[in-house]
Specification:
With about 400 residues, this protein is an alpha/beta fold. It folds into 2 domains: about 5-195 and about 375-399, Rossmann fold (3-Layer(aba) Sandwich), CATH 3.40.50.2000; about 200-370, Glycogen Phosphorylase B (Rossmann fold, 3-Layer(aba) Sandwich), CATH 3.40.50.2000. It has 15 helices and 15 strands. It has helices at about 5-10, 45-50, 95-110, 130, 160-170, 175-185, 200, 215, 235-245, 280-285, 310-315, 325-330, 345-355, 360-370, 375-399; strands at about 5, 30-35, 55-60, 75-80, 85-90, 120-125, 140-145, 170-175, 190, 220-225, 250-255, 270-275, 290-295, 320, 340. β8 (about 170-175), α6 and β9 (about 190) form a beta-alpha-beta unit. α2 crosses α15 (about 375-399) and α9 packs across α13 (about 345-355).
Length: about 400
């Protein structure tokens, strides 16, 4: 059930789950400003922040919804006792200046409940500076998971706001190695953290898991993809593959965003199954012959590190990908994933995999690699770096 933020919640307290000495340094609150909604595709923000909520109260502030009837308000629902999802509800028809003013006002009211002086501000979008810059948290994290300025419809001021955020942030994380290489000179405390994985969850795809009802009736070799279908997705490639091999079945799972659905190929062997929950994905993956990463090579994919890469591999399914830099290195480099530059190369790689049984050596090599890329390990490394920064800050203030 949703509750209004003010004045519902008292000052938050540290939860009982704290175990390590470093967690004692953590502020009472972590306030995340995100361009993605919590209930959208379950990915990096959800994996990391659900783990950070073990030793601090996380407030996940989403972009506004324009559905307020009389006045703007902030609704909050509790995913857990220490994980709150805050959604600004604004009146329709506001000017850009009024939108910023209303969001700023709501954050000010939030400050009546949450002690910002003992909080971490965690940014996924520099655009949030427009309504949060005036507040003074104890520590600022910029988790730069994508090059958002390269995405379709990105605001023009994104680049300048990111420069401002880089100047203010105490620490910066990047969503992959190539993004780190592009930004490493912009901050003196910046660290790459590529996509992680919950191995136990996706390894279920290697078991005899029941095939979902909307996929079980599709017969023939199954080539699957799950994720957001947007301007990064190579529609032409999928059309070419479907036309060249009409007996292959292409399973596409995920929401369609920022592109006209009418432009999607409508071949009888292409199946759009819509968005599925994170919990459902292994059951689909388990019955695919091939897992696809069919992305365009352009500015919007230049720095991406697809979370689905290790997830597919944990499911024990052969992976064929476009030549994405952070897939080439390390996955292509270690022969864990086929890297292809054309439809013909995708076809040859698929035929090669369909004509052989699953390699025990490939699975063994894959499992060794995946041990080092868990979300738990990523969280712990981030936690340690932030805790070190907080400790140094404390020493600096005391000296």
């Amino acid at each position: 059930m949703e509750q209004l933020l003010y004045p519902s919640y008292p000052m938050t307290k540290k939860p009982n789950q704290m175990k390590s000495d470093t967690s004692k340094l953590f502020p009472l609150n972590l306030i995340c400003f995100s361009h993605l909604r919590w209930d959208f595709v379950y990915q990096r923000p959800q994996h990391l922040l659900s783990r950070f909520s073990r030793n601090t109260t996380v407030w996940f502030v989403e972009e506004p919804i324009f559905d307020a009837v009389e006045q703007s308000y902030l609704s909050v629902r509790a995913e857990s006792p220490t994980l709150k999802i805050a959604v600004p509800h604004l009146l329709n028809g506001l000017t850009e200046e009024e939108i910023i003013h209303e969001q700023t006002t709501l954050i000010k009211k939030m400050q009546l409940t949450v002690d910002f002086s003992d909080s971490i501000f965690w940014y996924y979008t520099p655009m949030a500076l427009k309504f949060s810059a005036q507040f003074k948290p104890r520590y600022i994290v910029y988790d730069c998971m994508d090059e958002l300025s390269a995405f379709r419809y990105a605001p023009k001021e994104m680049v300048q706001l990111e420069k401002t955020l880089m100047a203010r942030a105490d620490i910066v994380f990047t969503g992959g190695q190539s993004l780190f290489e592009a930004k490493k000179k912009q901050h003196n405390n910046i660290h790459p953290f590529p996509s992680g994985i919950e191995i136990e969850h996706f390894s279920k795809a290697r078991t005899h898991i029941v095939e979902p009802a909307d996929q079980i009736g599709i017969t023939g070799p199954k080539l699957g993809f799950y994720g957001v279908i947007d301007e990064r997705f190579d529609i032409t490639l999928i059309r070419q593959l479907a036309e060249a091999r009409p007996t292959w079945q292409f399973i596409l799972i995920g929401p369609v965003l920022k592109i006209d659905k009418a432009t999607l190929p409508a071949n009888s062997n292409i199946h759009y199954l819509g968005q599925k929950s994170y919990q459902e994905l292994p059951a689909y993956l388990a019955h695919w012959n091939i897992a696809l990463i069919p992305f365009l090579i352009n500015e919007s994919t230049r720095f991406i590190s697809p979370t689905k890469t290790p997830e597919y591999l944990a499911g024990g399914v052969p992976v064929i990908s476009s030549a994405i830099t952070d897939v080439i290195n390390p996955y292509g480099k270690y022969d864990l994933v086929h890297i292809c530059g054309s439809a013909q190369e995708f076809i040859r790689a698929t035929e090669s995999e369909l004509n052989k049984s699953c390699s025990k050596l490939w699975l063994a090599k894959t499992d060794v690699f995946l041990k080092g890329v868990s979300w738990d390990a990523t969280y712990q490394a981030m936690n340690d770096k932030i805790s070190l920064g907080l400790a140094e800050q404390k020493i600096s203030l005391a000296s």
